[in-house]
Each structure stands twice: as structure tokens, then as C-alpha cells.
Amino acid sequence: MLNVLLYNISYFVFGVPVVLRISVWLASVKKALAVSSLVLLYIGNAAALASDSAGEGQAIEQVELRLLVSVRPLALIAKAVAGDRAAVDVLVKAGQSPHHFSLRASDRQRIAAADLVLWVGPELERFLVKPLRSAASSMTATDEAEATEIDHANKELGDPELSPQEHSHGGSSHPWLAPDAAIHLAQRLAIKLAQLDPTSAASYHSNAEAFSLRIEHLDQVIKASLADSQRAYAVAHDAYRSFSEHYQLPEPIVLSVSPEVSPGARKLWQLQSQLPQQSCVLVELEHQSRWLKALVETQQLRLHAVDTLAYGAGITSYADFLTNMSETFQACLD
Fold this sequence. Notes:
- This protein has helices spanning about 1-60, 70-80, 105-115, 145-155, 180-195, 200-225, 240-245, 265-275, 290-300, 320-334, and strands at about 65-70, 85-90, 115-120, 140, 235, 255, 280-285, 300-305.
- It is of the alpha/beta class.
């Protein structure tokens, strides 16, 4: 009995304070853990919000228009106008001809994914007529009203496949060869891009204006260099009319309606009488046929390759392309 009494007295004297201290300590630990959890949760949420904000900002910065352009000369103009605010991709690659290009499944996917498809029109890229009917947006390099009329006419024809003889090789199928047409296209393209991306409208218009001023100055330089070029010359087919008419060059002797089509025997005989030895013949890089090489060797003609599709390694801008064209014509006519 005495032992029990002494135990109870000891518990209240020594044990109760210890238990109370331990309880207070445990409560403090719980509070500390709770506060720490709240702090960590706040820090984690803040970091997540900051990461999301940074990701959204980065996404906004990385968003750019996707331009798919049929041929490289048009792409050079598009890049000058779009600057770094759009990705410009070319459909017809080096060594290929837009006259005989066939779309692959991957090409159709690129058309569907593009914000804008820039092309010349049915007279050059016949293969784009049908796919572009379901494209997000498209734009021709020629005047919109003219292109619309051509498109309607082609739809009425049921989109028949054209043979090489039926393809247009006049100025309308190579509008980029004339600098004034290139300037007009740049201005129209700036308006179109501004509609698709209003926040960058000022940049597009500024780029188009800078492009126009540069090409206008270069145009005057080229006119002066070609002013006295009046020698007779021949072309494998009539593909450079826009350039020759703009710079008032002599009317060329046209060898064939298409470089793939060999002239008949009578036509070849006439050409031999029209072309004295050492005459110049202009031909596109991708169109050097056997009949043409044979004629050049027989008549000892000077063959000059024209890079109408801007495939040359040194051509990185439209100004480079126009300069290269003028140098080729000058070498031919001098």
C-alpha cells in the first residue's frame, strides 16, 4: 500500500511535468511540420506557375507562320518579307521541274499543315490545283483576279493532265523573272501575312518596303549594264520573256515549244540557217536535252545555262538571283 502511494506521489511530482513537456514538444513538432508542409507546397506551386508562365511565353515566342512555296525564287521573296517570323519551305527541290512534278503523300501533308501556300498558278504548277482547294490559305504570285479566272477555267476543264507541249512557258508562268513583278508580289505578300499574323504586321510591311527599295536600285544597275546588249541569241524554249521584255532585250530565236520536244528535221534545218556559228543559246539548268546538245555541237554554238529556279549555291536572296540572271544574259549577248 505504501509502495502504491509513493509511486503515485512520484508520478505527480516527476512524471506529469515530463509528460506535459513531451506533449508540448510533440505539438510544436506537429506545428512545425504543418508550417513546413505549407511552405513547401507554396514554393512548389509558385515554381509550377513560374514554369507554366515561362512555357507559355516561350510558346508564344516560338509560334511562327508556316509558309509552303512552290518554287525557290518565290521562296526567296517570301523570306525577305517574312523575316524571322515565318518558316518558309520549298515544295519543288533542286533538280526537279515544276512542269512535271508529282505530289507525294508527305507533300500533301505539308500542304495541309501550311498556314499559307504560295504558288504561281495553274499555268505552272498544275499539280497544286486540286490539293489547294482544301488548303487553309493559298496565294498566287500573279494578280489575284487573273489567277481566279485561270482557276475557274481549269475547273471547267475538269483538270486534265497537260502534256509537255501544252504547258505555258510564257512570262506568266515565270513572273519572278521581272523585278517589278517581284516587288508587287512582296507588297501583296506583306498584306496577306499581316492578315494571318496581325501582331507582326508592321514588321512584314517594313520588310517589304526594304525589299522594294533594294530591288529598285538593283534594277537600275542591271538596266544600265544590259542597255547595249543587242546581239541575236536563241533560247531552248520561250521561258524568259518576262526578263527580256523588262530589260528591252532583242526578241530571241525560239528553238522549241518545250525543251523535251525535239524540233522536226525541217525546223532544225531552218535553225541552222538562222544561227551562225558562235551564236549564243540560253537553256535552263534542268532542261539540257540531247537534241539541243547535238545542235550546239553541229553549229558550234555557245550554250549558257540559265538558273531560272535559283538552284545555284551562291544564290541566297532574290537580289542574288536577279544579279545571276543579268550576268548570264550579259555573257550571252556580249
